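Case study: protein disulfide-isomerase.
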Amino acid sequence: MVHSTTLLAAAAASLLFSLPASADGIYTKNSPVLQVDARSYDKLIAQSNHTSMLEFYAPWCGHCQSLKPAYEKAAKNLKGLAKVAAINCDEEPNKPFCGSMGVQGFPTLKIIKPGKKAGKPVVEDYQGQRTAKAIVDAMVDKIPNHVNRVADKTLDEWLATGNDTAKAVLFSDKGTTSALLKALAIDFLGSISIAQIRDKDTKAVELFGISSYPTFVLLPGGDKEAVVYDGEMKKEPMSAFLAQVAPPNPDPAPAVPKAAKNSSGKNTKKASKDSSSFSSASASHSSADASSAKATATAETLEQASNPTESPSPNVVSEDDPKPVPVPNIGTLLQMLETEEQLQQACLTSKSHICILTLLPAKRDPAAPLSEDVQTALKSLGEISAKHKRWSFFTLPASNPGASALRTSLSLVADSDVEVLAINARKAWYKRYVRTSFTRDAVDDWVDSVKMGEGKKETLPESLVVPAPAAATTAKVKEEPEVREIKLDGKNTKGDEPFKVEFMEEISDEEVERLMREAEQGARAREGGNAHDEL
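Here is what the predicted structure looks like once written out:
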């Protein structure tokens, strides 16, 4: 005999755990942020002549959603000067590529600069603040500088070099080279030599009859007269002005056909895949004053000490090409807590529920790959996080000051090892994963044991717990739970009165399991009574 109580408990549990998930990205088609994937990365970013910033994100990541407004604002300010792009690492085809780029959490930002060899850019982590201004400043500083700095003593030499080719010069009263001029020099590299001359170089100023600043002059080459630009100092009109003597370089460059190969004595030609031209180089810079300090950088490009590495290529190779080393699919990546404040608000407030924290070891060499233990742990926790949706799973990098404080307070080993912790700040306890294996089954068993309350829990030091935000502690009038009617076959077993189930807005995993156990125990007791009555 099937009892209504058991059915209702199962129905309630089913409703409580049926949480819809969205796989859509967080940037729309109209967003100023360029959206790429594992296949288009090479064409749009790696082959580009311009510096790019690439955000690695997941749609479910709260910090990624918080970054979106600032990231889109930065993209607008950098339009035509540098690329601001994003890739959804939660999509299956993109996961191997995200893993090959060393992504450990979300959001991860990387700056990608053109390298000495075409198609082999230099990649480095962005370690700055997640604000629009900080991102713009960092990107402007990383724009390659192909602008010639010409002074009175070098003017004759510059004019004589390639006299038949076109040149352009900006006369300025500023000592720095603007991002706008750098971007123009990139667009016309190889066709128009672009220079900047200061107002204090009086010989050059008098030669060209310059009376105001900034003034942009085009020298078409040969015996042709110089042309003074009289438009706005913005990317699009200035590019059109220069295009009257030479077209801008396509970005990315058109694909070069592969060399013909001899197969079975027959000459066959294999054309490369069509490379669509991504044309953002001639777009207008949204700033009204492109030569202002907001969009300027020093003449010399400064390299940050972040151990830049060469970008991997995500291209699919043909059967004739050498087989690359396979990149493991590390599965669902966990959200990273990059600041101490993020750690506290996510896991260490007096109202925080259970967090599963993976403390990453310190990397002496940022370019070195993650250890096998770390990769296995992250993959296992990423996979089981989908199973335990009501718990929060995070990674905590060693660069977060809160990681060191947490290790010290809990008397954990040095930061050279990966640690996995379950923390419940609301109830002031934590539990450490002490097994030697980080396989999926082992980690899943441990999480299940924490969920069932098995094993010893350690006391979480009070010094680690911070007060909950005021909004979370504001008293609220308790509302009556919604009561919905559920009828089985139109009636219950005792008469015409329909069954009533109270649906609560929020309930913990432990509470659901307790209710399920009580319902099953009651059902078994009633089954025993009914069987006795039938004897």
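For the exam, be able to explain this: Confidence is low (pLDDT under 50) at residues 1-23, 259-330, 472-507, 529-535.
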